Amino acid sequence: MKQKQNDFIIELRDVTKSFGNVNAVDGISFGVRPGEVVGLIGDNGAGKSTLIKILSGVHPPDSGQIIVRGHEARNWNAARSRDAGIETVYQDRALAPQQTITRNIFMGREIKDRFGIIKVNQQYQEANRLMREIGFTSKVFDPDSPVATLSGGERQGVAIARALYFDADLIVLDEPTTALSLLETAKVFGFIENVRARGRSIIFIGHNIYHVYDVADRFVVLDRGRVVMTEDKSAIPAPEVLIKHMQEIAELGHAAEASPA
Amino acid sequence: MIGSGSDGQQIAREDASGLVKWLRNNRRALTSTLFLMVMLIGFTMANTDVFTQFKTYRSVMIALPVSIFLVVPLVFVVTAGEIDLSFPSVVGLSSYAFVSIVDQGGEPLLGIAAALAVGAALGVVNGILVVRIGLSALVATLGMNFFLRGFINILVEGFSIAIPEIRGSLIHTIMADDTIIIAGNQGIPNQMLWALAFTALGVFLYNRHSFGARVHCVGDNPESAAEMGIDVNRTRILVFVFTGLGAALAGVFSVMINFVWWPTTGDGLLLPVLAGLFVGGTPTWGGIGTVFGGMIGTSIVAFIETGVIAAGLTGFFTQFFYGLIIILSLIFQRFNGGRVR
Fold first, then answer.
1. Is B6's pLDDT higher than 50?
2. pLDDT band at A255 (very low <50, low <70, confident <90, very high)
3. Least reliable range by pLDDT among A49-63, A130-144, B273-287
4. Cβ separation of B13 and A90 shorter than 8 Å?
5. Residue A2: pLDDT above 50?
6. Which residues pair with B210 in a beta bridge?
């Protein structure tokens, strides 16, 4: 039941990437439609992180095409990816811990005039507003506090605030619930629902199949640099079924019942 | 939810902490400023006669600007997580470009442009060696320092160039004469005013411009900076170019002040300027620093020699006090915290 390809916000066609002898991404084709939450799953070393770093422009692919809203992208890099409306919340949060919360939120995309002069007050106010929106109620820190003074969940909040501010069409969340408390995890899920309600798309990468199952509309399973299964949620009645598929993939290299993509 | 009471409390807290916040955010620069003041008070108590006279301060302000033009861009380099040890020879070579043009009757402004071009080009070379070829900044720029000094020596075979004719010219009056007269016919050397203006420009770039913001992020966490779309390599090359430009200005001012270019011009600056940089409050690990503090730090270093002699000690004590004061001030800076991650 494939939709028209130009429906995709972004699409990768037969993309490869190797590091030395390791084919981290070995010919992947994959796209994201507006308003959908894609759960990207796979074991360690399946190529999830490399795939999203290609998507976000951090790693240039060795071969293959990147198509943004129907047009092939040239000289794809991190700045272009963000310009195209893709915000990535990296597993390592992509923060500069000695810098203020404000500077981290606007890292690489400062609010500035045409001479490059930063509008310091506006950035401060926006950071303050975002922190409230995310639910930062602590009085110990403010937008001028260095990120190093924050807890893991609060740091994740800063990374998410960044994606929120730039009102991305596609938000990539790489293992967003790792090392978070239950309450913080619930906040991340609330954020995902919020983004979905606004018609934006999400790629959710996770180890915890239950988490992924709860939020995703569609599952893409990677194994050793390839897409081995693509399935809508309607075809997977319960997370246990997804886990069973995952186990088969680990043993056979592909899912027994679902057809490989 | 939060009631109006706690909202009011929060506003009150923000009001009360305005000064505290400012102190906290500027603690490194403030520490070095305090250190300079304490040091000057100490010198004044040791020799009240000398340290209450304007000419003592003027004598320091004559050569201090040369160091300030170097320390300001070096704060950017160290914040970006790099180091540049080639600046003494860049001072020498870029000011050679200036002096040879003026010596042959050329326009001084053309000479300054040539010096800036040489400084910027050498900055690009440093940047390519470190960023593109991937050499260690410490070793590559140290190598460049020797290489360029050697190149100067081969070029001029030990001869110096004097340009006394520059005295009285408009450009010299603007750059290195005394305009603001304080006592008798002595005033604040104009080069000091230029150096302060350069510091102000540096402070603005460092704190209020996207270039400064990116330098901070690149030095703090280059992987994050790259993930957020900052061109990390370009930012790194630019800080080396900035140092080249600062070194060129330092070189031009050095010749303007002395009326002579020596093959050794800039040679003695390496250690005092680096000491001033770190004494000023910029830590070695990158990501944070202070341009104003760097200016203060070089002032501390510049006053040590004058202070030691004025206090009645012989010149043999100078290096001893250099070391002592540098270590003491670094201990004070240690109270401002180590690296956070």
1. no
2. low
3. A130-144
4. no
5. no
6. none
Contact B213 A103 (CB under 8 A): yes
Q: Which domains does chain A have, with CATH numbers?
A: 1-85+168-261 (3.40.50.300), 98-167 (no CATH)
CB contact under 8 A, B225 and A90: no
Residue B47 maps to which CATH number?
A: 1.10.3470
What mean pLDDT is predicted for residues B269-274? 94
pLDDT at A60: 92
Domain membership of residue B315 as a residue range = 29-334
β-sheet bridge partners, residue A17: A25
Confidence class of residue B11 from pLDDT cuts 50, 70 and 90? Answer: very low
> In chain A, what residues touch B338 (CB-CB under 8 Å)?
none
Check CB contact under 8 Å for B228 and A107.
Answer: yes
The pLDDT, as a whole number, for residue B308 is 84
pLDDT for A40-75, tens place per residue? 998 888 889 899 999 999 999 999 999 999 899 999
Which ranges of B179-221 would DSSP assign to H, the alpha helix? Answer: 190-208, 210-220
Q: Which residue of A has its CA nearest to B288?
A: A98
> Cβ contacts (< 8 Å) between B26 and chain A: which residues?
none
- State the number of CA atoms in the 13 A half-sphere of B41 facing the CB: 6
- DSSP 8-state class, residue A94: T
In DSSP terms, A229 is beta-bridged to A221
Looking at the complex, report in whole angstroms how far the Cα of residue B279 sits from the nearest Cα belonging to chain A.
Answer: 20
The minimal CB distance from A118 to the residues B209, B220, B340 is found for: B209
Per cent of chain B over pLDDT 90 is 74
Residue B9 has pLDDT above 70, yes or no: no
The residues on B that touch A, with CB distances below 8 Å, are 2, 10, 13-14, 21, 25, 208-211, 213-214, 216-217, 220-221, 223-231, 287-288, 339-341
Q: In sequence order, which residues have a C-beta less than 8 Å from that of residue A138 and are 6 or more positions away?
A: A154
Cβ A229 vs Cβ A261: under 8 Å: yes
Task: For residue A97, give the 3-state DSSP assignment.
Answer: coil
pLDDT of residue A139: 66
Q: Is residue B9 part of a domain?
A: no
Residues of chain A found within 8 Å of residue B79, distances taken between Cβ atoms: none
Q: Which of B211, B230, B287 has the CB atom closest to A108's CB atom?
A: B230
pLDDT over 60 (residue A226)? yes
SS3 label, residue B84: coil
Q: Of A57, A82, A98, which has the smallest distance from its Cβ to B288's Cβ? A: A98
Residue indicated by tokens 């079924």: A241
The answer to whether residue B154 sits within a structural domain is yes
Q: Total domain count for chain B?
A: 1
- A168-209 tens-digit pLDDT: 899 999 988 887 788 888 888 888 888 888 888 999 998 888
**B329 pLDDT above the threshold of 90:** no
Cβ density class B131-164: b for 16+ within 10 Å, e for less: beeebebeebbbebbeebbeebeeeeeeeebebe
Residues of B in contact with A144 (CB under 8 A): 21, 25
ipTM value, please give it.
Answer: 0.88
Measured CA to CA in angstroms, residue B86 lies from A176, B64, B70 at distances of: 44, 19, 11
